[in-house]
Amino acid sequence: MQIPSQSALSDIYGTTSSIELVTIGPELPGSTDLIADLAKSRNIRVSLGHSAATYATGHAALNSGATCLTHVFNAMDPLHHRSPGLAGLIALPSSSSSEEANGNERAKAKVNPEPPYYSIIADGIHLHPSTLTLAFRSHPQKCILITDSVELAGLPDGLHQGNAQIPHQQRKLGNRVTIEGTET
Predict the structure, then answer these.
(1) Mapping DSSP to helix (H, G, I), strand (E, B) and coil, where does residue 142 land?
(2) For residue 161, what is the DSSP state?
(3) DSSP-based three-state secondary structure for 169
(4) Does the pTM of the predicted model rise above 0.85?
(5) Where in the sequence numbering do the catalytic residues fall?
(6) Residue 64 burial by Cβ neighbours in a 10 Å radius (0-12, 13-18, 19+)
(7) CA angle 147, 73, 143 (to 5 degrees)
(8) H-type helices in the chain, by residue range?
(9) pLDDT tens digits along 82-103
């Protein structure tokens, strides 16, 4: 993990001309400024994820230019009835309906940003079917279905060597892959 900054971005990627989408944890120091720079100055889409950010922090990140959530409910704090975290952002009202309801400048000043697009892993493992339904019903037009397939998909069950991203042996059993000796 890196603390968000312009220099870190350049160190990691060099030029940003080929970058289309970046996922950022909005609770990290410097992320708000980086989100604004990426989204507004460089025209790079910013998604929020792999994060323990609060709802308010996520809201501020959306106002800074983020437009998406990366695999909602996974690698983020869980949705709680009093502290919804990033996952709660999928229920934001559309700002167009907010503007129509309020009819004032305050609504137009992005008190509520547009609800984000959100990706969900609908494989029957990452999300319980009722959680998937809850997310989808929130804003179906913003839902992006993704896979969490790994390089072991299609290979026989058993122990397989790691790689540059996951340098540990991985155990594949059916459609589930874990790091050997863990439940992760």
Answers:
(1) helix
(2) -
(3) coil
(4) no
(5) 148
(6) buried
(7) 60
(8) 6-13, 31-36, 55-64, 95-102, 105-108, 129-138
(9) 999 999 999 999 875 444 444 4
